[in-house]
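Protocol step 6 of 9: fold each sequence in the batch and record its structure tokens directly after the sequence line. For illustration, a two-sequence batch is reproduced in full.

Sequence one:
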Amino acid sequence: MPRSPDYLTATGIGVSNLKRSAEFYERVLGMKVTQRIKLDHMEEIILAHEGRNAVVLMHFTDGSNPNYSNLPVKLVFYVTDPKAIAARVREAGCEVTREPARLPSFNNTVIGLCKDPDGYVVELIEAPQARAETKAA
């Protein structure tokens, strides 16, 4: 299928503690802050892996009381080592809800699930290049 000229550049999620969430995505998932935005009603931190789509962490400062906890949102990441990421999730004080393991129904790819500081589901899928290296070894 040819590449579309239109594409998703980022996904935004509301967070209860901007600093804690930014540290989670930086330290645990290896993302880098690409931009910080301060608006009248919210602050945002944009994080990305180099050359990839971004996650926008949004914290509302307008006095509204948004629900940030355990919303039905899943962020899916290709990662080179899902087990190492799961260990960092635990070190950050967050929950691993499904230990990374090979899934026969998903072509024996290693997949795990965890939660970020606000309870958003983070799916860790073994990156195709890491999987190819494992098969070659």
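Sequence two, same batch, same settings:
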Amino acid sequence: MSLAEKISKIIKNKGPISLYKFIEMALMDEDYGYYKSRNPFGSSGDFITAPEVSQMFGELIAAWLITAWQEIGSPEKAALVELGPGRGTMMNDIIRVAAKVPGLLSRISIHMVEESEALRDIQKRTLEKSGRGVEINWHRSFSEIPDVPIILIANEFFDALPIHQFVYTSNGWRERMVTENKKGELEFCLSQEKTPACKMISKEFLISEQGAVFEFSPAAKDITKEISLHIKTYGGSALIIDYGYFFNEFKDSLQAVKNHKFHKVLSDPGQADITTHVNFEMLAETAQEEGIYAFGDTTQGEFLLAMGIELRATMLAHNAKQKKREMIISEIKRLISPQEMGTLFKCLALTDKAEPTPYGFNKP
């Protein structure tokens, strides 16, 4: 049985399913989920993340995390946490940089939050190559993180969390569902009546233009709340980087990618990555509701420039051969250019202190 057949059976027995349920199954189904059985990263996968583009990205993230640790007083016990660590490339770079700070790695325990056993195995192989003998802990959820101050990084984690999607019609908001047509193909439809999920729509959105689309991820809100409560209780900081928006856009951002090309969302569930743009406004508001501070409205390009990526590129290019220099120029362009990742990707910092402004959030 394929995942499409499994979904079809549910629809036949119970009727249309929510988009949230479809994405959840497509990505994390125990038997057929996209992230449960494959390595989607890199040129041989379906997409490339910033840490895979250049070592400079991981190095600057390491600098941010080290500074954040120092800002909370360099505690004797703290947890360095990464959500959705991909192939382990960024953590490998972080450990390499952190090893240069005397005593840091002996004070900080490293925690990787990863549900996929297949990706855990890849991460372990990547980090074993570092040869630094650092103890690394793996967890299925953030709730397993120890009760100590945290320094957390989440790069391209929130975009893969499932969402509910609502469309404004002449009858008000209706939820987008997944059903099956007469040909046995999966297709989108709208709920005939308001679903229980429609209660998630904020009161200020009750009046909108027909065709407007509202996306909401309860999973994203829940994990942000969990992180915020931990920071409020034990101290620390979090850095979130993803593609998304700071203000509600009311448009459809749902997309699927396979072999570095756009793919039909409902075709071959479990065989393509499915993502949506992250609502940074909602993440910031959730954190503030829990009593911690959110710093945002910063693009990845602005953040990396403020962190000194140009200086780091100059250092790497010094005495390098022409081919290597050209590669460095290409990498930095991809990371900071508005035509590449620079503007689409946004950054959000969460801290337990109003001051100072987190490193990198003073725009260049």
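Proceed to step 7 once all outputs are recorded. Observation for sequence two: The chain has twelve helices and 16 strands.
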